[in-house]
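task queued by scheduler; priority normal; single chain, no ligands, no partner chains; default sampling; output format set to C-alpha cells
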Amino acid sequence: MKSRAHYLGVGCLILLTGCGSKEDANEKNFGTAISRFVEQSNELCTGFRVNQWPIDLPLEWPADGRPNGPQQMTALEGVGLVSSTITDAAQNDVFGRAGGVVRKVKRYELTSKGRRFYREKAGAQGMMSESDFCYGNAALGSIVRWEGTVKGGEPQQARMTYTYKIEDLAEWTKDATFQTVFQKVAGVVEGAGKRELQKTLILTSTGWEASGGN
C-alpha cells in the first residue's frame, strides 16, 4: 500500500508539473510568444521591388541613382534568377505613351529558377507592387536571456533577448557578388544564430504576447 501511494504521489507531481499556466513567466511561454511574433511575417525577401517583367535597362545607364540598376540586375543574373538579352524597344514619352523612338536595351526576364523564389504581392490600396525575391523563413533560434517581469504596474511585462535562425535558406544568398550588392540580405544571413534581438512581451488574458508589430 505504501509503495502504491508513493507511485501515485509521484504521478500526481509529474502531472501537476506538466500543467503549467500560460501566464507563468518561464522560457517555454516566452519562447512560444516570441515564435508567434517572428512567424507573423517570417518570409525573408531581398527588398528588390519590381512592378512587372521583363525589365528593360538602357545600355548607357544614367548616373541619377535610379532603383533596380545594373548592379542589382547583374547580381541577380549571376545567381541565375534572371537572364538578359540585348534587344530593340520602343521608348515611351513622358506621359507613358508609346513613341516612335526605338533604342537598344538590355532586357531581363525571370528564369525558371527565379520563378521559384519570386513572390507576387499586391501593394496595399493601389500602391506600388511589393513583389520580391524571397530566400528563406525566419524562426526563433534561442532565448538568450530575459529581464525579470515587472509586477508593479499594468500590464505585466518581460524584456526578451533572443536570436533567430533561417529555415530553407536559398544557397544563392551565399554568393559573394550577390552579398556585395544586396548587403542587407548578407547581414541577415550572417546574423542568423548570432545577432541578438530584443522584444517586450506583455501578459494578457490569454498568455504572453509580443508588444507591437514587426
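post-processing summary
- The beta strands are 43-45, 55-58, 82-92, 98-110, 118-119, 132-146, 157-167, 197-204, 207-210.
- The helical segments are 2-17, 27-39, 70-78, 112-117, 176-181, 183-191.
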